[in-house]
Design goal:
There is one protein chain. This protein is 53% helix and 0% strand. It is mainly α and 146 residues long. The chain folds into two domains: 32 residues; 107 residues, Cytochrome Bc1 Complex, Chain D, domain 2 (Orthogonal Bundle). Helix 3 packs across helix 5. The termini are far apart.
Length: 146
């Protein structure tokens, strides 16, 4: 086994850390590239259950105004499922990344987040296309907390 000087070891660690950070950049910047106008059109599918905007009221799903940055399971007046409430209590906050992953498969996401094989989501809709998820997130982000 080859031994490195302490300076060489520090360089290897520094370069490894940089490589990890650079590897994370495409995902983060790709999410920021969503098109809110396209997202508004895609959101029409979501509006079967969700409302958004200053006068929005809960429907089959909770109001999504201000969802980006909100703790999961906390919109006033909506009756969330046990798994969503548990995820919020565990610390799940709806960041753009969390929403991106959740929209692909809500039940699978909650099961992984909670490490619970029987976790469920009331939301059965899946938005599989990554670009559509980015666009919807960009649209949601235009509606901060009101």
């Amino acid at each position: 086994m080859r031994r490195f000087s302490s300076e060489t070891s520090r360089r290897i660690i520094r370069y490894s850390a940089c490589a990890v950070l650079v590897g994370m950049l495409p995902f983060s910047s790709a999410q920021a590239e969503g098109d809110a106008a396209k997202g508004e059109k895609i959101f029409k599918r979501c509006s079967a259950c969700h409302r958004i905007g200053p006068d929005a009221k809960n429907a089959v799903g909770p109001v999504l105004t201000g969802v980006v940055g909100r703790a999961a399971g906390t919109f006033e007046g909506y009756k969330y499922g046990k798994s969503t409430k548990a995820a919020g209590e565990k610390g799940l906050v709806w960041t753009e990344e969390a929403i991106f992953d959740y929209l692909a498969n809500p039940k699978k996401y909650l099961r992984a987040y909670l490490d619970e094989k029987k976790a469920k989501s009331k939301m059965v809709f899946k938005l599989k296309k990554e670009d559509q998820r980015r666009d919807v997130i960009a649209y949601l982000a235009t509606f901060g907390a009101q």
